[in-house]
Specification:
Number of strands: 6
Largest sheet: 4 strands, antiparallel
Low-confidence stretches: none
Order of helices and strands: EEEHEHEEHH
Radius of gyration: 13 Å
Mean pLDDT: 93
């Protein structure tokens, strides 16, 4: 039985996957995490809320036509909005 549905990819082997059983969004990266996906967002709603809040709080922004990330702000916002997702507890940039 397939429980994951691919939502997004970076075309480099990494995916965000929707889990039909528990509604979590998982991050799959064979290079970074091995073969086991890790919970990244608590659900689709919090995934989009996280992204919107990251833009609103300037964790994500454009500078000189380049997309930039303030990783500390991203982590803080993401942890707050996704308390059930382990990715934000273990990520180290």
């Amino acid at each position: 039985q397939k429980i994951f549905f691919p939502l997004f990819t970076n075309n480099g082997g990494d995916f965000l996957l929707y889990n039909f059983k528990n509604n979590f969004i998982y991050y799959y990266s064979p290079v970074i995490l091995g073969k086991k996906p890790m919970k990244k967002y608590d659900n689709l709603k919090t995934m989009f809320e996280t992204i919107i809040n990251c833009y609103a709080e300037k964790a994500y922004y454009f500078e000189d036509d380049f997309f930039e990330i303030d990783y500390d702000k991203e982590e803080q916002i993401s942890r707050q909005l996704n308390p059930k997702s382990q990715y934000w507890l273990v990520c180290n940039y």
